[in-house]
């Protein structure tokens, strides 16, 4: 009796259908191709191995953001989109220049009707100052303090006595117009005019003041 072929899964000897089984088993094994054996790649010492293709790893989340949703990775469709203006930091606004104070108009010549009322004292002269005996700079300081004080008290009409000086060329008389129209008194004086003879003539001035 012939010895059956060895191998795992082969039919047992002595069975009734051993010849048929061997014939069928031979057909099955003929259709099976044994796996090809792979040879190990030869590596030359010092050669650089090709990098293995790996998927990109997302960077770890920064501290303090645990539990928050991860932002979606950019896709080819969204990679070309520009960042919305809301996400961009706002540039600091330029500092606005301070608003300059409104320039005060220079005092003007008194209206004839106002001067006439002062001459006749229908509008009372509420205070007066005599600058005789003062030097130029001292007289300017005295006049400025006097007029500012009168305005703060709510006075509206005063008399300033300058004197005519020798031969009509007094320093105070020549400078008082400049003082009254200067920047220090523009917010105080509203107008002025030479006084009547009864109040000093060319050596005195009616000065009207602005309201508080």
Tell me what the structure shows.
There is one protein chain. The protein is of the alpha/beta class and 212 residues long. The chain is 25% helix and 11% strand. The protein is built from five helices and five strands. It has a five-stranded mixed β-sheet with strand order 1-4-5-3-2, with helices on one face. Helix 4 links the parallel strand 2 and strand 3. Helix 4 crosses helix 5 (171-180).
Strand content: 5-15%
Main-sheet strand order equals: 1-4-5-3-2
Gap from first CA to last CA: 143 Å
Instruction: Bin the helical content.
Output: 25-40%
Give the rounded overall mean pLDDT.
74
Shape type: rod-shaped
Write the H/E string, N to C.
HHEHEHEHEE
Report on the biggest sheet. Answer: 5 strands, mixed
β-strand number: 5
Spatial extent as radius of gyration: 57 Å
Structural class: alpha/beta
- Pick out the low-confidence regions: 70-74
Number of continuous helical runs: 5
List keywords for this structure.
alpha/beta; single chain; 212 residues; 5 strands; five-stranded mixed sheet
In short:
This protein has helices spanning 18-31, 76-79, 112-119, 136-152, 171-180, and strands at residues 108-109, 127-130, 157-161, 189-194, 204-209. The protein is of the alpha/beta class and 212 residues long.
């Amino acid at each position: 009796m012939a010895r059956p072929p060895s191998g795992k899964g082969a039919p047992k000897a002595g069975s009734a259908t051993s010849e048929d089984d061997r014939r069928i088993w031979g057909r099955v094994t003929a259709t099976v191709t044994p796996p090809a054996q792979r040879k190990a790649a030869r590596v030359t010492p010092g050669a650089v191995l090709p990098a293995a293709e790996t998927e990109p790893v997302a960077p770890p989340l920064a501290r303090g953001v645990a539990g928050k949703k991860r932002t979606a990775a950019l896709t080819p469709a969204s990679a070309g989109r520009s960042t919305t203006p809301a996400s961009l930091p706002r540039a600091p606004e330029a500092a606005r220049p301070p608003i300059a104070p409104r320039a005060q108009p220079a005092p003007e010549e008194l209206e004839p009707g106002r001067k006439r009322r002062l001459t006749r004292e229908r509008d009372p002269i509420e205070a007066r100052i005599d600058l005789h005996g003062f030097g130029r700079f001292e007289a300017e300081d005295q006049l400025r303090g006097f007029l500012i004080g009168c305005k703060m008290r709510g006075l509206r009409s005063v008399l300033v006595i300058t004197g005519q000086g020798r031969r009509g060329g007094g320093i105070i008389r020549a400078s008082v117009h400049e003082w009254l129209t200067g920047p220090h008194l523009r917010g105080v004086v509203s107008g002025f005019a030479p006084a009547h003879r009864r109040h000093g003539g060319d050596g005195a001035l009616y000065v009207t003041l602005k309201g508080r």
